């Protein structure tokens, strides 16, 4: 143990500190698996006081802090590869309170998203942000990245559900932001600055989440589509006639991987594109939409779930994609454009990717109803890791230029972290980035909070 760590242990005698190699490895990385973890130690605070104590100590010793949730991030935001102190919220994972009148749930940052869902359900309500990593990701990380997921189309991103936040800034102050108020016209809403700040301004130590009514029982339908240009037309039809909870797409390559990983393909013949959609209406209205799309040649096949088990099996085809690809450690892109621009943008992307990756396995899927596309590129066996990353980065640079031309964003919901840092300027102006740097200096005067993420120090 270094002298400064020994001092931290003396200063906060109840703080759990870990330095075993297995822990350094485990807590030093996220799902990107590109960087070798090398943190100084792992601190597992049990209270807000301990978090403040850690930040004070880190400022005094100029030790960098990497906040750590479930580490399911895909942009390297939770990577600790340079002797940082990882602050994990694994021990701060409780529900602190529920308010039936305000319909809010107050939680510690280390609670898993799924546990938030269960707690809300236990009160007859719903926390609507949802995505595949729900069992492992933590609410603090969701807030730090303004996580999106499969129900943004109806409920919006995490930001919309944050009624209040307690944060410890990089300077060590404890701020209580918005305190659950519905209306609060008192100047800058600092709460929203912390949502999506990727741990660069401070640490979220408590969150008050807004809850809502659960939807009526929903139906889940899977469509097979013959061509990419049918996608947005099917979306238009579904959005016009159905109250959508989700509208997600994936390609035949995605289906191939997810089926190889154990999911069931309900179709006998292959199609290039698929859509899974969930909506409030009954089967009759859904079948009318399906028949209209079939007659117009927009879809070639479809299945409507007849039970919860079948609905889950259809969802597995979409939600299982990331896990089915994990063993290849694919290069990931998470991009967005305005919904109106999606068709033009898809055309431009198809030209780029067909030209740049003629023989690569390129897997497209995502939240197409939000204009958010995930593009995973699998490394061919004959290409080295370094050449693969170099080629993907060249293509991403071109993609960033196309995005810029279409007014889009290089990161829709995964954050910038380390992976997308070189492309930040394609989505944010020089003036914006300068202001962001200035804000970091205000909240984190010694630059100890997640340095090197989002932009270079
Ligand atoms: C999803 O929508 C996640 O499933 C992960 O955002 C996307 O693995 C990915 O690229
Ligand atoms: Zn996603």
From TrEMBL:
Belongs to the FAD-binding oxidoreductase/transferase type 4 family. The keyword Cytoplasm does not apply. Pfam families: FAD-oxidase_C, FAD_binding_4. Keywords: FAD, Flavoprotein, Oxidoreductase. Its cofactor is FAD. It comes from Tahibacter soli. The keyword Flavoprotein applies. Residues 35-214 form the FAD-binding PCMH-type domain. One of its GO terms (molecular function) is oxidoreductase activity. This is FAD-binding oxidoreductase. GO terms for biological process: respiratory electron transport chain. InterPro entries: FAD-bd_oxidored_4_C (IPR004113), FAD-bd_PCMH (IPR016166), FAD-bd_PCMH-like_sf (IPR036318), FAD-bd_PCMH_sub2 (IPR016169), FAD-linked_Oxase-like_C (IPR016164), FAD-oxidored/transferase_4 (IPR051264), Oxid_FAD_bind_N (IPR006094), Vanillyl_alc_oxidase_C-sub2 (IPR016171).
């Amino acid at each position: 143990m270094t002298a400064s760590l020994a001092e931290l242990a003396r200063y906060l005698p109840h703080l759990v500190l870990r330095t075993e190699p297995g822990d350094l490895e485990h807590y030093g990385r996220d799902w990107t698996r590109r960087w070798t973890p090398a943190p100084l130690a792992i601190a597992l605070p049990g209270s807000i006081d301990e978090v403040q104590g850690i930040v004070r100590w880190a400022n005094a010793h100029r030790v960098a802090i990497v906040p750590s949730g479930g580490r399911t991030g895909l942009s390297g935001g939770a990577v600790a590869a340079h002797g940082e102190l990882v602050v994990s919220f694994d021990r701060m994972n409780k529900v602190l309170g529920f308010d039936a009148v305000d319909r809010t749930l107050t939680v510690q940052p280390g609670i898993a998203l799924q546990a938030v869902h269960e707690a809300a359900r236990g009160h007859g309500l719903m926390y609507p942000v949802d995505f595949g990593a729900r069992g492992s990701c933590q609410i603090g990380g969701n807030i730090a990245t303004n996580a999106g997921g499969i129900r943004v189309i109806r409920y919006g991103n995490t930001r919309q559900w944050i009624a209040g936040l307690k944060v410890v800034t990089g300077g060590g102050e404890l701020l209580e932001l918005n305190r659950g108020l519905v209306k609060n016209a008192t100047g800058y809403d600092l709460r929203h600055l912390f949502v999506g700040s990727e741990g660069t301004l401070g640490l979220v130590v408590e969150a008050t989440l807004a809850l809502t009514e659960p939807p009526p029982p929903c139906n889940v339908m899977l469509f097979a589509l013959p061509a990419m240009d049918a996608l947005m037309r099917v979306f238009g039809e579904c959005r016009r006639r159905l109250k959508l909870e989700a509208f997600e797409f994936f390609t035949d390559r995605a289906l191939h991987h997810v089926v190889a990983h154990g999911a069931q393909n309900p179709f006998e013949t292959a199609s290039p594109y698929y859509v899974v959609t969930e909506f409030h209406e009954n089967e009759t209205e859904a079948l009318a939409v399906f028949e209209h799309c079939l007659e117009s040649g927009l879809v070639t096949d479809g299945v409507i779930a007849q039970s919860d088990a079948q609905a889950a099996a259809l969802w597995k085809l979409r939600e299982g994609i990331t896990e089915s690809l994990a063993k290849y450690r694919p290069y990931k892109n998470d991009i967005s454009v305005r919904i109106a621009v999606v068709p033009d943008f898809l055309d431009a992307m198809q030209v780029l990717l067909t030209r740049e990756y003629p023989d690569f396995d390129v897997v497209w899927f995502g939240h197409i109803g939000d204009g958010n596309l995930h593009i995973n590129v699998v490394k061919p066996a004959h290409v080295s890791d370094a050449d693969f990353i170099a080629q993907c980065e060249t293509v991403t640079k071109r993609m960033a230029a196309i995005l810029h031309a279409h007014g889009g964003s290089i990161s829709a919901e995964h954050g910038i972290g380390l992976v997308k840092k070189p492309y930040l300027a394609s989505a944010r102006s020089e003036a914006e980035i300068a202001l962001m740097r200035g804000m970091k200096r205000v909240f984190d005067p010694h630059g100890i909070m997640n340095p090197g993420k989002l932009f270079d120090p």
